[in-house]
Specification:
The protein is 38% helix and 11% strand. The protein is an alpha+beta fold and 231 residues long.
Length: 231
């Protein structure tokens, strides 16, 4: 269908970029299909089994998320697919959603983004507690405490000092579209060049089955790393 050129952001997401480049240089993605495609949402690939449950990182084990307030799931964003906090491997997706945030939905989207971030923090704290050797009774009490804190944060709403930070993201979503509900859930580490989004749109529009898998394979023929030269 054509080439998809992507700018990577190693300064903001160094581990995700290192992994992606390493897999590309190893030829890992060559011949792999986009196994999950949902029009006006995203296209997902990077799984050699094409089942959605395969693939691994260059380190042979999952690696941690890298969230950054300046990298969000705008239309064209390249993000890591995962099965939960710190479970990144080889799978990725490109945000294709054209829907923009409106004035009517801005407040709820800001709340979602804020709570995603706070939930991620709570999950990391829970993992650290479990790794410390806490008893089941201690874990149960800790979980209850975290849940109470999250519920209270939701009831209180987004703090004023965080609204300015999140408003910048909301303004971008109003302009170009995307999937703000995925922020602080998936590491963003690249952005498709705008002129190549037509290819992404073509892939997103293919016929799919009940599992969102294209009925005709859409294959990554080859992937390569090149140095960008401005014209």
């Amino acid at each position: 269908m054509g080439d998809i050129r992507i700018r990577l952001f190693p300064d903001a997401a160094p581990k995700a970029v290192e992994n992606f480049k390493g897999l590309i240089n190893d030829g890992y993605y060559n011949g792999i299909v986009f196994h999950r495609v949902i029009d006006n949402f995203m296209i997902q690939g990077g799984d050699p089994t094409a089942t959605g449950s395969g693939g691994e990182s260059i380190w042979g084990e999952p690696f941690e998320d890298e969230f950054n307030t300046n990298l969000i799931n705008l239309r064209g964003a390249l993000s890591m697919a995962n099965s939960g906090v710190d479970t990144n491997g080889s799978q990725f997706f490109i945000v294709q959603c054209k829907d923009t945030v409106t004035d009517d939905t801005a407040e709820s989207m800001m709340t979602t983004m804020y709570m995603n971030r706070e939930t991620c923090k709570a999950t990391l704290m829970l993992n650290e507690k479990a790794a410390s050797g806490a008893s089941q009774e201690e874990m149960n009490a800790y979980v209850d405490g975290l849940n109470n804190t999250l519920n209270q944060e939701y009831m209180n709403g987004v703090p004023e000092d965080q609204k300015a930070v999140l408003q910048k993201a909301i303004d971008l979503y109003k302009e170009v579209g995307g999937t703000p509900h995925l922020d602080y859930k998936h590491t963003v580490f690249g952005q498709v060049f705008e002129e190549d989004m037509a290819v992404v749109d073509q892939i997103a529009a293919v016929e799919t089955d009940e599992n969102d898998k294209p009925t005709t394979d859409v294959t990554i023929e080859s992937a390569e790393i090149t140095t960008y030269h401005a014209e």
